[in-house]
Amino acid sequence: MFAAIDIGxxxxxxxxxxxxxxxxxxxxxxxxxxxxxxxxxGHCEVDPVAVVNVVRDIxxxxxxxxxxxxxxxxxxxxxxxxLA
Length: 84
Hints:
Elements (H helix, E strand, L loop, with lengths): L1 E6 L3 E8 L4 E9 L16 H18 L6 E3 L4 H5 L1
Parallel strand pairs: 1-4
Antiparallel strand pairs: 1-2, 2-3
């Protein structure tokens, strides 16, 4: 079993992956932290600590539900690449 994290534009999601059973369970979803300040069009900034805190909270919840977890899988797109 593995914990999976996907950091998207609107939400940060987590789930437990069971590759042996080909099953995804315990989906958790939290809104992405709000943007900081006001920036010109096309620019944005997010507090990285807020993102890490949301991911930590999701992982903590998944570990309670699946204590036999063997690792963490992080999506390599967008914010997931930065966190990885």
